[in-house]
Amino acid sequence: MADKNSLSSINSPYKRTEAETDPRAVSISMLKGGVGKSTIAVNLARQLAAHGHSVLFIDLDPNGHASVGLGFGEQYHNTDEDVGDVFFNEADPASVIYDTGYEFDILPSSEELEQVEREIVIGDVFQPSALLKREVVTPLLGEEYDYIVTDSPAYRSRLTDNALVATTNLMLPLAPGNEAMSGLERTIERQIAPLRKHLDVDVLALVPNMLSSRIDQQTQDRQLLERLNSHDNLQDRIPNFARITDWDAVDTGESELVPGIRDRTSITKAYGEQKPLLDYDPDCDQLVCFEELAHIVEAGRVIRHE
Q1: How far apart are CA 132 and CA 51, in angstroms?
Q2: Which fold, 21-299?
């Protein structure tokens, strides 16, 4: 794990751009597995839809976790037509987009996505990292959809690059553990920094996710929150639900804050029932977190509570 100075030295990719007006596309990305990307992406899309927006969710992760979790396993295993046909065969994006039944649409993942990725790499493709932008996002964003949310693979690839080029806005999930901050550093160094040479890639939010332990003790949850909240350069990327300014109040029990997106049985069960959390358990206390993430996407930045 890098020290504070090391992390600060690679913060240049976090350059703040002026908030754009709607519409907006955003990618949920992290070069580390097991951080809950798909859960955040699906529930962010659902909350944006609940605000009355037209939303498209694009699953670019070859494992198809989000697609299967929304009930699109048949489409995932059906290789007759997928995003590869849109990229290479001039298929209409509408031919691979479906209504989820939860007020937003999905372009699901496919078992053939890894083959699609190989074709991007080895094929004679003009601007191989701009296929998603050119063939899907540019034609649809602002025309058919107010917002587009993309779930990216957990490794550097042409698919990941396509997601970033197409959206230029990122939300980065982090889960407690020894490699939490190193995963963030890898994402900055290997994914964001190279693209920032050509694009205004902006990180909208750093999202502590899958927290389960108390933070008035030296747990991994606390360590993650301390690292994030101790860096001045990261403060305007930390959502209100994860921001801690008074650790003394936490340690004395005076603070009632339970920060980060917490592990809840409802979140796990919602996946098993093939529903977003809002539709499975509209009373879940973690919906307030996804609600704030939706507001961040709408505003193009974290809006600090007074």
Answers
A1: 26
A2: Rossmann fold (3.40.50)
Amino acid type, 203: V
H or E stretch at 269: helix 265-272
Rounded distance, CA 184 to CA 250, Å?
A: 25
Categorise residue 34: left if φ over 0, alpha if ψ from -120 to 50, beta otherwise: left
CA–CA dist 51, 142 (Å, integer) = 16
How far is the CA of 230 from the CAs of 222, 226, 234, 273, in angstroms? 12, 6, 8, 39
Q: Domain segments of the chain: what residues?
A: 21-299
Write the CA distances from 78 to 113, 132, 153, 220, integer angstroms.
Answer: 12, 21, 20, 41
Of residues 257 and 51, more confidently modeled = 51
Could you tell me the strand order of the sheet in which 169-174 lies?
Answer: 98-99, 105-107, 55-59, 147-151, 24-28, 169-174, 202-208
In this prediction the pTM is: 0.90
Give 142-174 pLDDT, tens digit per residue: 999 999 999 999 888 899 999 999 999 999 999
Which of 147, 151, 124 is closest to 137 using CA atoms?
Answer: 147
- Give residue-wise pLDDT tens across range 189-214: 888 888 888 888 899 999 999 999 88
